[in-house]
Write a structure and sequence with these properties.
The protein is α+β, with helices and mostly antiparallel strands and 333 residues long. The chain contains eight helices and 16 strands. Strands 1, 2, 3, 4, 5, 6, 8, 9, 13 and 16 form a ten-stranded mixed beta sheet that branches. A six-stranded antiparallel beta sheet has the order 12-11-10-7-14-15, with helices on one face. A hairpin with a 2-residue loop joins strand 14 (299-302) and strand 15. Helix 1 packs across helix 5 and helix 6 (156-173) packs across helix 7. The chain is globular.
Length: 333
């Protein structure tokens, strides 16, 4: 009957404390023993302890996909996690229909079911790690290994994510009235900056097949690795990705211009027609190596938060993420 509510005060478009408190009162009225916490060290310590003692019903992340990834990174395998969506994209919440209201989530916590999902693990140089104040936890020191739940991408869109979070951090540190909260409109200026300044450096992607690494395509300028088939506003870039199949899905493109990116996006939105392009390659593997040609700094992002710069190694972790969902949910991956 123990529930821990972890509030990320910097996530999403506005403060989420009121909705978190509403969830607390709703669950308390149903007989649950609820704690609302903001310190991640306390959240992870108590969640792990209550889970080990068999007392934890759920760890609730109030935030977005970066918040969910942070909680998984900080807790033991098997800790039951669910989400009160308060981020920008909220891909996990949308994919598993967790809803956005405290009353809806309280119903799920009271009578929902647990499903087990895979996750991706990324190994990269700690010296190339970026800071930020987003839903993720990339501003600590010495971290060189990280779990993501939805997707990883390299290049243009990661450059945009870096721009969004740089402006977010500056605003937060300057005491701006909006603090660190962002919306889709927060991406407009960083998108324009990346359109103007990004160089489209070549990216080398190798996937591990038949006990050896095999190069995926030539002259790659856009690279994505998916665990779930969600991206951005729900764009089906990896239509065959499943969160429980023990595989990661890659999507790579040639073409170093914003016009190529817009074209790929339009085709992907139309029944994933991008997969028929000669300039695109889709596939699956359990492990990847991703590098930038000539040692240039190509950024990458995970679950909507800045992560660092290439090179990076990526691999699947089977059954790493336990999610509490509606008992009537039919699609569980």
């Amino acid at each position: 009957m123990k529930v821990i509510i972890s509030v990320n005060p910097k996530a999403g478009r506005c403060s989420s404390f009121f909705r978190a408190e509403e969830l607390l009162f709703n669950l308390s009225g149903r007989g649950f023993d609820v704690e609302l916490l903001t310190d991640l060290d306390e959240v992870s310590a108590k969640s792990n302890r209550f889970f080990s003692e068999g007392r934890l019903r759920a760890l609730v992340g109030v935030g977005g996909d970066g918040t969910a990834a942070t909680l998984v990174n900080r807790t033991l395998r098997g800790v039951p996690i669910t989400l009160l969506s308060a981020g920008t994209a909220n891909l996990i919440s949308k994919h598993f229909r967790l809803g956005s209201t405290p009353a809806r989530l309280a119903d799920i916590i009271e009578s929902g079911k647990l499903i087990t999902l895979d996750a991706g693990k990324v190994m990269f140089s700690a010296g190339d790690k970026l800071g930020g104040v987003g839903g993720g936890d990339f501003n600590g020191g010495g971290v060189s290994e990280r779990i993501f739940l939805v997707m990883l991408s390299c290049g243009f869109d990661a450059d945009i994510v870096n721009g969004v979070h740089s402006r977010r951090e500056e605003r937060y540190l300057s005491g701006h009235k909006r603090g660190a909260h962002i919306s889709y409109f927060s991406y407009i200026k960083p998108i324009l900056n990346s359109i103007w300044n990004y160089r489209y450096d070549k990216i080398n992607v190798e996937c591990f097949i038949d006990n050896e690494y095999v190069k995926v395509g030539d002259d790659i300028k856009w690279a994505f690795i998916f665990n779930l088939n969600r991206y951005g506003w729900g764009l089906p870039l990896a239509p065959f990705a499943r969160g429980d199949d023990g595989l990661l899905d890659h999507v790579v493109f040639r073409g170093g211009s914003i016009f190529c990116g817009v074209f790929y996006t339009m085709l992907a939105q139309c029944f994933s027609l991008h997969r028929f392009l000669r300039a695109a390659k889709l596939g699956q593997a359990v492990k990847y190596r991703i590098t930038a040609e000539d040692g240039v700094k190509v950024p990458f992002q995970m679950d909507g938060d800045p992560a660092g710069f290439l090179p990076a190694e990526v691999e699947i972790i089977k059954d790493r993420f336990t999610l509490l969902v509606d008992s009537n949910l039919k699609r569980t991956s």
